[in-house]
Amino acid sequence: MKKSDSLIIIFLTTIVLGFAGPAWAARIRVAQESAPGRGDFDANILGYIDPYPEREKAAAEFYSYEALSHYSFNGPHPRLRDDTSHLFLVTTREGLSLFIVHDKPNNPDGGGATMRIRVKGDPNGARILIFDDPNSEWDTFDAKPGGKEFLTWHRWFPCCTDGLVLGTLEGRWRVFLEFPAGDAAVGDEPFDGLQRWRAFSASGNIVELKLKKGRRVRLDPPGSLVRAPSRRSTINRYHMTKHRFALKREKP
């Protein structure tokens, strides 16, 4: 291989890598298995969501616990719905963070929820950044070593929400969430006072999830996080670069 050709390849590689988007900028794929334990996520892609871009805010600032409604999420997005478990991602100061918010303040019936969250592919694991409510005897969580698995228990009154923030998500991460079927750890009913489970996007898109015991949802950034340039753009840049190297070689 000629030296000039090697330089062209290096230059083109630099161009392609220049299109790389950071993990927080990637769209997130949402999938849900067709039945508990089936694991057929790739055959059941429900849609895509975009993280809310709030890089100048810490996760605690975005969650705004007790800022307006007591013992509750008071963040700017999304608009909370009655009897709904809200799932969304936010690019916070810490990094890409997963938010879960159950219900909305001043809902007449309150509720409860148990969730199991598993994180795979993240080299550093994750941790609970925010837990709502932090001082309640009704709310608690169990984090396995390494930040790979979390079990959360929440019970909220009509006044309030419950929820958490998990982060940060890095590398080739995947997150699996479920309201687990009854066992010794979670009891018989993993939720009450909830009728809907939804994933929210900064674009305004809402992905409807099936609120079923043990039926897992998977979140992940699809494909490579490198956004390659269009073929036309690559060809044009290649010819331009080749021409410049040719001019260089012709100079005395």
Task: Walk me through what this model shows.
It is globular and about 40 Å long. Helix 1 packs antiparallel against helix 3 (231-250). Residues 3-24 and 224-252 have low confidence and may be disordered. It has one domain (22-223). The two termini are 23 Å apart. 16% of the residues lie in helices and 32% in strands. By secondary structure, it is an alpha+beta fold. The strands form two sheets. Strands 1, 2, 6, 8, 9, 11, 12 and 15 form an eight-stranded antiparallel sheet that branches. Strands 3, 4, 5, 7, 10, 13 and 14 form a seven-stranded mixed sheet that branches. It contains three helices and 15 strands.
Q: What's a concise summary of this model?
A:
This protein is an alpha+beta fold.
Compile the SSE list and pairings.
Elements: H1 3-17, E1 28-32, E2 45-49, E3 52-53, H2 59-63, E4 84-91, E5 96-102, E6 111-120, E7 127-132, E8 140-143, E9 149-156, E10 162-167, E11 174-178, E12 191-192, E13 196-200, E14 206-209, E15 217-220, H3 231-250
Parallel strand pairs: 3-4, 4-13
Antiparallel strand pairs: 1-2, 1-15, 4-5, 5-10, 6-9, 6-11, 6-12, 7-10, 8-9, 11-15, 13-14
Helix pairs in contact: 1-3
Which short descriptors sum up this protein?
single chain; 252 residues; alpha+beta; eight-stranded antiparallel sheet; seven-stranded mixed sheet; 3 helices; 15 strands; 32% strand; disordered N terminus; disordered C terminus
